[in-house]
Amino acid sequence: GTPLPLVTFCVLDIETTGLNPKTCDILQFAAVLDDLKDPQPLEKLPRFTAYFTKSVYQGEPYALGMHPGIWQKIANAQQKRIEYDGESNAHFMDIQDLPIAFQNFLSGNGVEEKYGKYKITPAGKNAAMFDLPFLKEKINDWGNVVFLHRVLDPAVLYFDPKTDYVLPDSKLCMERAGIAGEVAHTALEDALVVVKLI
Question: Is the whole-model pTM more than 0.90?
Answer without folding.
Answer: yes
